[in-house]
Amino acid sequence: MSLAGLRFADPDVLTLDEAAEVFDGSTVPTLVDLKDPRDAEAVANWLAQRSDPERWAICTDDLSALQVARDRAPDVQRWRSLPHVAPGRGEGVRRIAACALRSTLPARLRRLVEEAGATALSVDRWAVTPRLCAAAHALGVEVAAWTVNTERSARRMSACGADFITTDRPEEMQAALASQDGTATARCDG
Questions:
Q1: Cβ(46)–Cβ(16) under 8 Å?
Q2: Mapping DSSP to helix (H, G, I), strand (E, B) and coil, where does residue 116 land?
């Protein structure tokens, strides 16, 4: 789809350059959630040209896309999204996979992190457990739980040891976490 066609369908959509302008001068780190691995080369090339690579990270569940990002934009953090689900699968399939894999993920983390050169994990909240967070922290890797939109889930992610949560409701989740002694911080899912 052309940019004009996309803007006709959704007038509020931003290009990466426009989104970068929104955050210009901010200290807020920006996570680019790569939805289509076919875009990895273009996004990685764009990230590689940034003068502020420390402010950017890219996440996806596609290993080859993360490897492209590692090779083309080595100074940009790579966050591996878990679990990996075949393209085109719906939310229900991802939730089932997250639940089914939750007990096996901690033992596989070292390989999953090393093969992508990941500095963090973006994990479906259904797969987040205290064992997973402990295993990630032992590897020096942070855990972001997604998408957390209820107070109960935010508190559970914090109790599990998640470092961040991704949410569509940052103010509500920050308030929920502020009311307890939690370690997770709300990050807005854009």
A1: yes
A2: helix
What is d(CA 109, CA 151) in angstroms, rounded to the nearest whole number?
A: 28
pTM recorded for the entire structure: 0.84
Q: Which residues of the chain have pLDDT under 70?
A: 85-91, 181-190
For the chain, the structural domain boundaries read: 3-146
**pLDDT for the residue 22:** 87
Assigned token pair, 70: 């590692």
Q: Which fold has domain 3-146?
A: TIM Barrel (3.20.20)
What per-residue confidence (pLDDT) applies to 44? 97
3-state secondary structure of 145: strand
Can you say whether the dihedral through the CA atoms of 130, 136, 141, 146 is positive or negative? Answer: negative
CA distance 130 to 158: 10
Residue 5 phi, psi (nearest 5): -65, -40
